[in-house]
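Sharing a chain and its predicted structure for anyone who wants a worked example. Both blocks are below, sequence first, tokens second.
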Amino acid sequence: MIKENMDKNLQKNTEENKENFRQTCYKCFRPKSSCICEFIKPIITKTKFVILMHVKEFRKCKNKTGHFTHLNLVNSLLFVGEDFTNNTKVNELIKTHNAYILYPSKDAINLSKDNLNLDIMQNQKSTKNNLIFILDGSWPCSRKMLKLSKNLSNLPKLSFDFSGLSKFGFKTQPNKACLCTMESVYEVLKALNNSQSEKIDKSKLENFLNPFLEMVKFQVNCAKQSEVRYK
């Protein structure tokens, strides 16, 4: 009888787990069994962030760090595509803001050393708010997006100094210093805070990466469990 009850409970738990994996959270777009919404604590910024997600990135079912970034920033927008040249909303945003794009370049403004607001004051008298475009995709996809999108390619570029390692524990990066979208935006926010371009509460900023870190933790644990051989 005891064994029979144990078998029934095991079957019930297995069926419930399968059901959770089948269901999707339509906020974070992850299976409900690994939903990370409880870790999303949106922060408010003066700078507007616009995440431009490549279509290939959009098709990923679980690891959309660009989407997590959007959810964690109140003042942000997200668009999916490859060529944004004729995107009416993107072009309107460029006209109505001091628009920049985060992309490495020898002429890029280094946020770790340069004050973005000071750069604007020195080069133009403007009352427009700052806006930073973030390309969300692999390096080849990001390069293609920038090449195709003529309205973005001429925007001033931003960069930052980083000497650590990505925390994307289960994904192979082109090199150790490469960061995912959410990690990159976190570094930008830190730099803007340090230069007083933003005044984000330190505790809120420290929690910014939590959705990403929880997602990584879950994926790593799943990988470890799949490697266990039961006898």
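Comments welcome. The two ends are 24 Å apart (CA to CA).
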